[in-house]
Description:
By secondary structure, the protein is mostly helical. The protein is 54% helix and 3% strand. It has 13 helices and 3 strands.
Amino acid sequence: MEERFDQVYEQLKNYYKHIFTYSSYEFPIVYIPLTRAQYYDLFDDPNMMDMEREDIICKTCIVYPENISIEKMPAGVVSDIADKILEASFMSEKGRKMLFAAAAKKMQNVDRQISCIIHEAFPEYDIEDIDNWNMLRTIDFLIRSEWILRTIQGKPPLDIEKILTQGSDITLKPEDPRFYNEEKAEFDRLREINTPAENNKPIPKKKTTLKRPSRKRNQISEQELAAMFPQAFENVGDEKSFKDMAMGSKNPNDMTLAELAELRNNHR
């Protein structure tokens, strides 16, 4: 049973590390870049024809399909694949500068710096293998490396605290408010469990008292009082008249209806 292309691709990638795919032909073609030695061997010979170089480049760098017949392929396809291989080899000035800028940016990654530190103390480990260590082993060897470089080799001490705080905090959880609400509810539950009992006392509710509306006392005008109690306002010329006594002792506007009625009955 023939292997699927994706399986073959993964196997080639694991073996060669850097592979590229040419998909403009009737089947996919996988190739690797030229090494520097291979590049100089090809272009240091001024007597070699470009067509001959293209054939050598394709035969050297194509890794899939195996035993591909370059001679049976159209010349234009062979020339196009050779150009792609040269581009992927980054041997031009533009290619070198591009790779250097990309590599310098990668070196800002603290994990690559850690790999360099460990490799300096333990050169028997391949630096690319160190990149594939998990964090448990990495930190263990980082501490050992710092001690070896400082104590045995006399190198200046490393700022371990600065190195460790440069790591990136990456989460795979999407920014979904539903996840946040679930987390918050769980944290609130744990916080309630771990909070001392005296801090969990219920807060007494403030009693709210309803303010009754004040009733305004309707003031009765003097004309209305005169209409209701005409006798009280009759002036008979006597200083002891009912009107003088009523007005002198208490203002009728301040009297209740019961008091006015009582005065009226007494006057009869």
